[in-house]
Amino acid sequence: MRRRRIVAWAGLVVVLVATTGLSFCLGASSVGPRAAMQALAAGPHAAADDKAAEIVWRIRLPRLLLAFVVGAGLAVAGTMMQSFFQNPMADPYIVGVSSGAALGATAAIVLHWEVALLGLSGVPIAAFVGAVGATALVYGLSRRGGRVPVATLLLTGIAVGSVTSALASLLLVISPGTRDDLHVVIFWVLGSLAYRGMHDLAMIAPYVGIGLLTALLLARDLNALALGEETAAHLGVNVEGVKIALIAVAALLAAGAVALAGIIGFVGLIVPHIMRILVGPDHRALLPASALGGAVLLALADLLARTAAAPTEIPVGIVTSVLGGPFFLYLLHRRRQGGA
């Protein structure tokens, strides 16, 4: 297992480096490897006079870093949710994060909420508030006698998600918004890393950083929970406290990612499953491996999204869905065989 982990980490690092190089060079406007290296070496001040430096520093570097952060956040959130529900087909959006964010973003777009806070426009702020609010509502409705039954949480998440999705659709139908508003909503729902800068990265990075650190601190408790709640309690784990922390951290990671990048599916589903095969179920290794794997996958998907039909850009959520859909079907088929 140790050798497999070393090989997996080495492979992920190699892919990460290769993806980074390709991301700087490929796009609607190509930048040669030498020009990209020179632009990076010259620093951001060269962007005012050098077209290659402007492309690298103002467009591709922020976008690449944002892909790393969003991908890592979604993958770790997915790992935590799969551990919480003891189900490899759980994802970060299972407790209403995506539908709540969609409701908030839709409201901000069709109502033309122009309020800005800390460098962010109304849409990501409303999406973040909607995501966190939906998760809090699901948790509050699921709590029974000081406990949160997993099955109740799952069913409540499905119900709240359906209601918030319906409300978002209702807003689109009854609002006096224009066709452009509808286009913006659809593009946001499909997920994209376009038109983001360093200030966006600065806003989401603290959330993901705190979430990743907290997740690592919970790794031993997650290992205990994998043995069952009763066994974990006998081992001294505060089961309900850990469950609250898991939901809160996963929701924080997913909400921060969705607020800026829209709804990007399947990253939080397929990455934890693949990393569990490569590095094993120990969360002390699984969580950081999932973070790196999520960063690599989303960076690759974003690279494909902006080069496959250049100069037209495909929303990255479409790419991850095309990649993730067949994998999800594989999981279903494998589970059916296992249960047969």
Radius of gyration: 20 Å
* Low confidence ranges: none
Measured by DSSP, the beta-strand proportion falls in under 5%
The level of helicity is over 70%
How would you characterize this protein structure?
It contains 14 helices and no strands. With 340 residues, it is mostly helical. It has a single domain, classed as Orthogonal Bundle (ABC transporter involved in vitamin B12 uptake, BtuC), CATH 1.10.3470.10. The mean pLDDT is 86.
Give a topology summary.
Elements (H helix, E strand, L loop, with lengths): L1 H24 L7 H10 L8 H35 L11 H14 L11 H21 L7 H25 L4 H12 L7 H20 L1 H7 L3 H6 L4 H23 L5 H13 L3 H25 L8 H24 L1
Could you name the key traits of this structure?
mainly alpha, ABC transporter involved in vitamin B12 uptake, BtuC
Quick summary of this structure?
By secondary structure, this protein is mainly α. It has helices spanning about 1-25, 35-40, 50-85, 95-110, 120-140, 150-175, 180-190, 200-215, 220-225, 230-235, 240-260, 265-280, 285-305, 315-340.
